[in-house]
Each structure stands twice: as C-alpha cells, then as structure tokens.
Design a protein that fits this description.
Membrane topology: Multi-pass membrane protein
Strand content: under 5%
Number of strands: 0
Subcellular location: Cell membrane
Largest sheet: none
GO biological process, one term: peptidoglycan biosynthetic process
Shape: globular
Structural class: mainly alpha
GO molecular function, one term: lipid-linked peptidoglycan transporter activity
Number of helices: 22
Pfam families: MurJ
C-alpha cells in the first residue's frame, strides 16, 4: 500500500508547497540534534552528578530512600497538572501560534504563562497541604515523618518546574534550543553544592551502624539536615527558571501578565487535556506503585534479618536516572529538533513528511542508543562501582545498582522509540489515542510490579520493577506503531529494522569484547574488592572505550547509514 493511499480523507486536498527536501531536513536534524546533544550531555551528566553526590552524602538507606521518595512528589504533580498537557498540547499550540499569529505568538504566550502561574500556584498550595497524605501513600511507616517534612520543603518547586517548561516552550517554538538545554546545569550545580556541604557538615563524622550504613534511623536525622536537603533542592529549581531570562530577552520575549484568557483556545485545550490528564494520572499511579513497592521491599524492619543489602527507592531511582540520562542526551535532543517540524507537517496534512521525520529520528536515536545499552549490560559491574561507590554509598549498594543497570541497558531502546512515536501523536495534537492505547500498557506495568513483589526475593524486586517497565515499553511501541501506520501511512520501518539489525549486531560484538576483557581484569576488582577507586574508573573508561571503538569499526564494516551521516556532519563542523 502506498503512503498516499493511507492518508486520512481530510488530507486529500492538495497540500501547500513542501519545505526543504528530506535529505536537507535530515542533515539539519542531525546538526540540530548534535548541537542540542552537547548541551543536553553536559546537563544530563551534571544532573547525574548531583544524584551521585547526594547519594554519596546520604546513602541508599532510610534517609536516601526518603529523600528520593519526596523528590518524586513535585515531579509527579507537575506531570499531572501541566507536564503531559505541555508536551501534548501546549508546545504544538506554541508552534502554531508562532507560525500563524501576526505577533509571532507573543500574546498567546503571555496569556498562557499567566494562566499557568495561577494554576500551578493553586496546585502547589493544595498538594503541599496534602503532603502527609501523599507520604502515607508512597512510603513505609518508618519513613512517613521524614518524607512529609522533606515534601513541605520540596513541593513548592512545582510552580517553578511548570514555568520552566512553558518558558522553554516559548524558546523552542522559535527554534532557540540552547538555553533550555544549558541552564539546568546551574540547578544541578546548586544541588551538587548542597550535597557537598551536607557531606562535610553531617556525614563525614557520622557513626555507621552494624551494617556499615549511616542515617538508617529517623532519630539520626536532624531538622538542619532536612532544611539543607529540601530547601537546597527547591532553590536549584528557582535559580534555573531565573536563568532563562537573558535567552527570552534575546528572543524578543518579555512576559507581561495578561488575564484575557477568553482569547486562548480554552475549549481545545480542555478537550485535549482531558485525555492527557487521564493518561498522565494513570502513569503517576504506576510511579507511586513502583516507589511504594521499592520502599516496602527495602523496609529496614522487614529486611534486618536477611543479612544482605536490599535495594529500594534510591537504587531504583539511580538506575532509572541512568536510563533517562542516555535517553535525554540522545532521544530528547532528536525529539526537540523534530517536534516543531513534525507539528508543521501535521498542521499542513503532509503525512509522508511527518513519517519521514519520525523514521529518521528513530534511526538516528537507535544508532546512538544501542551501544549505550550494550555498555550498561556488559559493564554493569565496573560502571556501578565506578559511578556510585562514593562516600557512604557502600560497595554492596553500588553493585546492586549495577545489577539494575544491566536491565536498564535492555529496556533503554524500547523506551526511547516508544517516546518518539508518542510525540508523533502529540504533533497532531491527538491526546485521545495516546491515552487509550497506554491505559493497557500501564495496567501491564503495574501488574508486573505486583508480580515482582510477590514472587521475587526482596533483593531482586528492583530488578523486577525495571523489567516490568521494559515489557510495558515494548507493548507501547507496538501499539503506537500500529496506530501511526493507519494514521499517516507507511513509516519506513523496514529501513529502521534493517538498520537496527546491523547496529544491534555491532553492539553485541562490541559488548562481548568489552565483557571478555572485564572477565580478565584483576580479580580483586572483578570480585568487588573496591578500595581502588582509580582501578574502577580505569576499568570503566578503558573497557567503555574498547566497546565504542569496536562498535564504530563494525558499523563501518556493515555500512550503517547513520554512521555515514554522522561522519559527514562532524567533518562539516570541523571545516568551519
């Protein structure tokens, strides 16, 4: 069946003249993605650095799990109140307003920012007052008091998360991607400073318990500790928003509050938001279930007699953040570059062009993500030890994080491809389809969580939670692919599949090579004798370099198309 014959009936009219040809657009997407990827790389690395520093300061025991749980609160409510609405509705509307409005969409942005500030402020007040109830729902009794106190300090960040998202949308709709990618680095540096101060003020002189852990009792945690952790985390988000101001001014945008909300497409936003909120609410139920089960599995009162470290919310979060760092550096950069173009193509009913953008984005993201996944699988032990075993984050905790990381390596690609395909629906401002096909996906995910908790030993529950995520990502990928093919026609998935076979083969050869060398590494390090931090870092760097080199070499031999495109782009950049 041809692509044209699969177009919706309302796209039968002759489309306007197309923009730049696919090859030119492909090169532009590669170039834009690499440019944003640089900012995203530094942002994600420093973001992960803040997680490592905080983990080194507070460990993966009671305080660490309580802080991780409280951290989820503002992010969850942000996603529920605005996050999904922004991704699926607001950004496409920004692009359309900038494209079609005489003032370039400025008035639309002023009104929307004003409305969002009011909604977010009200939401932050309500959920902050409800912090004790939320804490009971997500944590174990021994954690409730700590989680509640931290939440009082961290939930107000909801307002600033939302404002950052919308202001980033203003800049992205004008294809100014730099600041939203770079200013989160400042937030990360603030929290890194908080973790460092916490370590030297509170952790360095703390006395470990019989298991070698600190802050594993609520009585060990003081009000000063909570103020530093919670208040410092919120301060980082506030500073991040303020740092967008220079970029907005350079883009010619100055926010002036406007209360004439009737000029906004409120009915459109309301109708579309209803489905998005259903989808996002279901997702947040899954998040709550994951954190609750992680906390239950690692409850100190239940695991004290096991004699082994049982990972909980902190290990789950750290391994999940490794996945999100890789996804953010690669796939989010690709999505950000493609989203305005997919939205314009969808707005003009140019379905083959939208499909071409999506197919090219998946091919490029897969080419870059496959070797990262291979490294997580093959080198999970040295990576876990090198990255996480700092301060009071013990070797056992680091090795448990490495085990979870091996699962992340397998589920990374299905997650990123499923997200890319979901954004193709968002480009069409179609939230109904996303909500409908993801409800069974979320049900499968939660069912997997319950099975993992019921059937697996406590120390393997976190691995089971991540594996359940992976199954749900794969189901989401297949469902969204089927619906998109009916909607926009052929997606070029045969070309994607052929490229994926080559890259997976190359990554498998590279991963086996690196794993074989790890097996030959000095036994004291391979067995977890981890006092030699330099050896850990050397093993991760050296073996990772071998893996990357073998992957590139095999890709060249197999003539992977994306390898050639990347070479061309890099050479062009170097000639400038």
């Amino acid at each position: 069946m041809s692509e044209s014959s699969a177009r919706p009936s309302n796209g039968s009219a002759a489309p306007p003249p197309p923009g730049p040809g696919p090859s030119r657009q492909g090169k532009s997407v590669v170039s834009s993605s690499l440019l944003m990827g640089a900012g995203s790389l530094v942002s994600r690395v420093t973001g992960f650095g803040r997680t490592v520093v905080i983990s080194a300061a507070i460990g993966a025991g009671l305080l660490g799990n309580s802080y991780t749980t409280a951290q989820y609160f503002p992010q969850m409510i942000y996603e529920l109140v605005l996050g999904g609405v922004f991704a699926s509705i607001i950004l496409p509307l920004f692009v359309k307003a900038h494209k079609n409005d005489p003032d370039g969409g400025d008035a639309f942005a002023h009104r929307l920012l004003t409305l969002a500030a009011l909604v977010l402020g009200a939401a932050a007040l309500v959920v902050t007052l409800a912090a004790p109830l939320i804490a009971v729902g997500m944590s174990e009794p021994v954690q409730v008091d700590l989680v509640t106190k931290l939440s009082y300090l961290m939930l107000p960040a909801l307002v600033f998360y939302g404002l950052f998202a919308i202001l980033s949308g203003v800049l992205n709709s004008r294809e100014r991607f730099g600041a939203p990618m770079w200013v989160p680095i400042i937030n990360n540096l603030v929290v890194i400073t908080v973790g460092t101060v916490f370590y030297f003020v509170f952790t360095r002189d703390a006395v470990p318990d019989a298991n070698g852990e600190v802050f594993n009792s609520a009585s060990d945690v003081t009000t000063g500790m909570l103020l530093l952790l919670g208040g410092g985390t919120t301060a980082g988000v506030v500073i991040q928003v303020l740092c967008l101001t220079p970029a907005l001014r350079r883009a010619g945008f100055r926010w002036r509050p406007r209360f004439d909300f009737s000029a906004l497409p409120l009915r459109t936003i309301r109708n579309l938001a209803a489905w998005t909120l259903l989808f996002v609410a279901a997702n947040q139920i899954a998040v709550m279930a994951a954190i609750k089960i992680a906390n239950a599995a690692s409850d100190p009162e239940r695991t004290a007699d096991l004699g082994v470290f049982v990972p909980g919310a902190t290990v789950y979060n750290n391994s999940y953040l490794m996945m999100m760092m890789a996804h953010g550096i690669v796939a989010v950069s690709v999505i950000t570059a493609l989203m305005p173009r997919m939205t314009r193509a969808a707005d003009d009913k140019r379905w083959p062009e939208l499909a071409e953008h999506l197919s090219g984005g998946i091919r490029m993201a897969s080419f870059l993500l496959v070797p990262i996944g291979a490294a997580f699988v093959a080198l999970h032990e040295p990576i876990g030890l090198a990255i996480f075993q700092w301060g009071v984050y013990t070797p056992q905790q680091a090795l448990a994080t490495g085990q979870a990381l091996a699962v992340v390596g397998v589920i990374l690609l299905p997650f990123s491809i499923s997200q890319l395909q979901i954004y193709a629906f968002y480009a069409q401002t179609d939230t109904r389809a996303v909500a409908i096909f993801n409800l069974p996906v979320i049900a499968i995910r939660i069912g997997g969580y319950l099975l993992a908790f019921a059937l697996l030993p406590a120390q393997w529950v976190i691995v089971g939670l991540l594996a359940s995520n992976g199954v749900s990502y794969l189901v989401s990928l297949l469902l969204s692919m089927s619906l998109l093919r009916k909607r926009v026609g052929l997606l070029g998935m045969r070309k994607v599949a052929m490229g994926l076979i080559r890259t997976v083969l190359a990554a498998t050869i590279a991963g086996l090579s690196a794993w074989g060398l790890w097996m030959l590494w000095p036994a004291d390090l391979a067995d977890g004798g981890t006092s030699d931090k330099l050896g850990q870092l050397l093993a991760s760097f050296a073996l990772g370099t071998v893996l990357l080199g073998v992957y590139i070499a095999v890709c060249l031999v197999l003539r992977v198309t994306e390898m050639t495109s990347l070479q061309t782009t890099v050479r062009a950049k170097l000639r400038r």
